[in-house]
Amino acid sequence: MSVLQAKNLCKSFKNSSFTQEVLKGIDFEIEQGDFILITGASGSGKTTLLNCLSGLDTITSGEVLINGQNLATITSKEMSNLRKNHIGFVFQAYNLLPNLTLYENVEIASIIASKFNKDKILELLTKFNLIDFKNHFPEQVSGGMQQRCAIVRALINDPDIIFADEPTGNLDSKSSVEVMETFQKLHSEFNKTIVMVTHSLDNLKYGNRHIQIVDGKVIKDERLNNA
User: Fold this and answer.
1) Which residues pair with 34 in a beta bridge?
2) Where residue 54 sits, what CATH number does that domain have?
3) What is the pLDDT of residue 150?
4) What are the residue ranges in the chain where pLDDT is below 50?
5) Angle at 26 between CA 24 and CA 27, to 5 degrees
6) What is the Cα gyration radius of the chain?
7) What is the domain range of residue 102?
């Protein structure tokens, strides 16, 4: 079942003197349970693509549909509902609130979506080896632990799809492996659909589909043979 469709997706940035085409007619579908890794050189458009697919940025032309909802035509209230209940985000810089504990960072996401469930929060923190640090503030734990907390926060409202932008970009090699194994667990045990932009080709071994972007166009869309 398709959870996301991009149809002739184009994105340009304009100023008074010129127009820069960043995405040039992107077409693909994302199926339930896909773990997609999007790669490309710096400036290829991969992060812009992720932002357009997730509704963080508007597109210039074409269509993006999540669960059949066209992001260009839904109301702001419908978009807010989509983000709270159907989409999870994981960013390179973690984006945890520094004045809240790890537990509270997850808790606030569930409260905003009116899905607060203390037992579920504690269960997920336990499953992802964070329970002993639930009362720590972000600055008191490692970058890898902060990113795992951000993943739990993205998961807490049971979204249909999780978008991740360079989630290992700020991490050392050991923490990077731990974070990618966490995403692998989301995919295999929680059956989550994941769309990840990554700079590292080593991360391809964790997913089941690879999309390569060059100059704003898809030049490769292949299934991976990972177990």
Assistant:
1) none
2) 3.40.50.300
3) 96
4) none
5) 150
6) 17
7) 2-223
